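Help!! Second protein's tokens look totally different from the first
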Amino acid sequence: MTPSQPPTPNPQPLLAERVLDKGFVQLTDFMGGDDAVVQAARASMAQGLKGEEKDKKLVFYLMEHNHMTPFEHAVFKWHVKCPIFVMRQWIRHRIGSFNEWSLRYSQTPDEFYVPSEFRAQDMKNKQGSVAAAAIDQKAELADYKSALDHAYQTYKKFLDRGVAREMARMVLPTALYTQFFWTVNARSLMNFLLLRAEAHAQWEMRQYAEILAKFFKMKMPWTWQAFLKFVWKGGNPVFDKEKRLLKTKG
């Protein structure tokens, strides 16, 4: 059986943007929106939309008072290409549906994440990193690329010698790019952004979170504003700046 190829990006996604050196985020499908949140919230009273001013006010009320169930009626479907180590953090968010490209059925191309610079260990935040002028970036990058190349060439040798794909893949590092589909409602997406766009999240993870937020804002502007005003606690320069602008506008 001929091994399958990586998933093909949608040629006409609703929204799309490149991330890191070889990754992307595509919004491939969307259901609901701010109106769906309002309709769900008023369902118990058999009422619907009442005009922009009242409907937006209701969205803000729901967010402020933590009435979150109506936000589950807006749904996003994403196609994401990211390094495996990013995916492993992503999949910890369990309220959502994931389907990932499998190297049991496929052979991966030589696609690894190559950072623009290496960071040093943060001595205060034990899981984090900080910029470090003392690191010899050229030497570290050379060693890094050499390790990736050795791993990939070993992977190819295994396949050429008849080793099963499900075992040959074991030699590949987490810098390898993977692809997956993620369907998630707006409530869970906001929880994701609250954790993964914040300063303590890994820099590479934050790059993806910021693109998700950008598209989320485009599709659900009222909910996005309410999220910033009542839920977002700070820790991302892009979000923080927009939150300050919202305050100045009243």
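Here's the second one for comparison:
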Amino acid sequence: MHELGIEPTAAAIAGSVARGDADGASDIDLISYIDHSLSQVVAERSDAISRRHEGERLFFAVEQGLAFYGMFEGVKCDFSISPGTQVVTLVEDVIKRHDTTPDKHTVISGIREFLPIHGDAFIAELKRRTDTYPDGLALSIIRENILLPPRWVIERMGLGRRDFFLTQELLTTAVRRMLALCCARNRHYFNYKLKAIDRLVRELEATPPDFHSRLAGLLTDRDSSLADRYASLASDCWELVEASPFDVSTTLARARFERSFGPA
């Protein structure tokens, strides 16, 4: 931070290092908050640091923040710097206004795991605000993700045409939506990056049986049972929604999923 010419008001380690389950392939995520907007000069300094350390700038906007990475002593380090007011607004968008934007939920998922290294009071307040998961937010997430790619699209447009890339894209979309449904059912913030899903599933109380292995199987096993396995897991996810306290009907989602269109 000294080389960038800024003084953070708060900072935290995030990700696997913060959780205590880092391994030899883990990177270090350093999140810093400042009490002002960033300047082009700071962005240029980050470029110079990145170039010296085999990295690059990933994002920069004066009012939103800066992200870059570099290699330090053989370890990839990711740096994120943003105004503290911005992250407070983001948290309020999700908690109070039930904003379902995936990037915002990914940020909150990270906040939940923060290990503070500076400005402990600010970090503690962020974590306190994200202790809650309102029913209205869960309902919004469920409604947004309840429609899954129809079975016939997987069978005919993907598998039937031997289009591996389309099949993978459709199933990845389905996996992400099923995870979002289960996270909302459990009032658990979801990191939409699809990292460490085995750990995420272990943290959820209510999931379909063998949830992680069945999700993984959709993306790895291309045998003749794929469409049936996909339909079975989709049905189990909808059953979880039906058993939830939220007033959501799965009738339309189920009908759309099984309806057949296109050439036979």
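Reply: Different proteins will give different token patterns, so don't panic. The domain at 10-129 is CATH 3.30.460 (Beta Polymerase; domain 2).
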